[in-house]
Amino acid sequence: MKKISVTLISRGLLSNKEAQVLLLLCEGMTRQEIADYFYRSLKTINAQVESISRKLECHSTAEIVATAVGNNMVLIDITYSQSSAYKFIMLLLVMLNILPFLNNDLDIEMRRAPRSPRPVRSMRLSGRFVRGNKQI
Fold first, then answer.
1. How many whole angstroms separate alpha carbon 33 and alpha carbon 55?
2. How far apart (Å, rounded) are the C-alpha atoms in residues 124 and 2?
3. Which fold has domain 2-80?
């Protein structure tokens, strides 16, 4: 699981509310999720995002986030945390891949899948398609 934490470095021309909306946009929240978070209407959040867009001279939400990061307005930190169940499964998979090499008594076959046959090529001759020796 990954966790995104965003820190506001500089507001620039943005108001306090616009800066808060920018932080939540950088965390990956949708406009509807931001509206629910602030208990505001979607129309209000859309107006604030449009205002941010005008002030940063951007045309999309992704461009707003990229511009904010590029202008050092926000600092994004992504951390990956693994649960103990995930670690156990990964350890089990490693053990299963190593065990056949350590113990030759196991009846586990580890082979590659067979290759697919070569595709039949078709070509166009005088307005008709020909595949192999047959006309289509």
1. 23
2. 53
3. Arc Repressor Mutant, subunit A (1.10.10)
Q: How confident is the model at residue 106 (pLDDT cuts 50, 70, 90)?
A: very low
> φ and ψ at 77, to 5 degrees?
-125, 120
Return the closest-CA partner of residue 69 out of 2, 17, 6.
6
3-class SS of residue 90: helix
Every domain of the chain and the residues it spans: 2-80
What element of type H or E holds 8?
Answer: strand 2-8
DSSP class of residue 80 equals: E
User: What pTM was computed for the model?
Assistant: 0.58
**Which residue's entry shows tokens 């190593």?**
98
- Chain segment 17-48, per-residue pLDDT in tens: 999 999 999 988 999 999 999 999 999 999 99
